[in-house]
Every structure is written in structure tokens, then in C-alpha cells.
Amino acid sequence: MSMEFELRCPVSADLGFIRDLVRLHARHSGLRGERLDDLVLAVNEAVTNVLDHGGKAGTVTAVRTGQGVRVEVMDVAGRLTGDHLGSAAIDPAGSHGFGLWVIQHLCDEVAVEQTAAGSRLTMHVHRGPSPRYRPFGRYGDHETQRAGN
Q: Count of domains in the chain?
């Protein structure tokens, strides 16, 4: 008998604790290596956005799916919209504001939904290799790319 469980926790400024909970749930759900790290970083960015730009309150919910792990971050303020996702970009001169861009490049699927309870950002990371192209390696290491590593 297989037992499934769901992670549900409040948004909190204790980002390390949230990362640990998400990592534990995702590992139990079959994510490993880079894909596990991708999800943990994406959730960290999403929760940071709730704390910095949203209502500073909400919930993080993670569930195993047939393909991987889906995490929903609910922001009670409801300020996040699909337009924000569509316009997410990196400003080379900027020092912040990269969160939604990063989330979209780490996750296989990302969506925003407006609900009566606020904005719900849904992120899905699949088990197995990332389909996303990373031109300079994992952390933008162009020396590694040139060396063929």
C-alpha cells in the first residue's frame, strides 16, 4: 500500500525552514539532484515575493503528481497576475526583481490564478532531466561551457 501525503505550511520569513520542508517532500516524491534543487529555489523565490511584494501571508502546498511535484504558493494580497509572469525579464542593470523569471526557468510549468482567497502561483517540476536549455551550465559558468565540461 502506497501512502501519499501533502505538505501544507504557512508562508513565513523562516525561508530555511520552508526550503527544508519542500526539499523533504520533493525528495520523498522522487525528485533528485538538480531537479530537486530547482524546485527548492523556485519555491524560495515565490515565498520571497509574497513577503516582499504581496500580503506577507499565505500558504505553501506541495503534492506529488504522476510526473513530479506541484507546489502552490497562495498570497492573500492577490496582487500577482498572469501579466506579471508574461512580462518577467532580467534587467542587466538591476539588483533585484528576478524572481518570476528565475521561477519560469527552473520549473516545467508555471501558472497564476486569481481566486477569492488571493493569487495562487502554481509551479510543477517533473522527475527526470530538465527540458529547459541552460546555455552556460547550471550557474551561468561560461568557463565550464567553453572547456566542454
A: 1
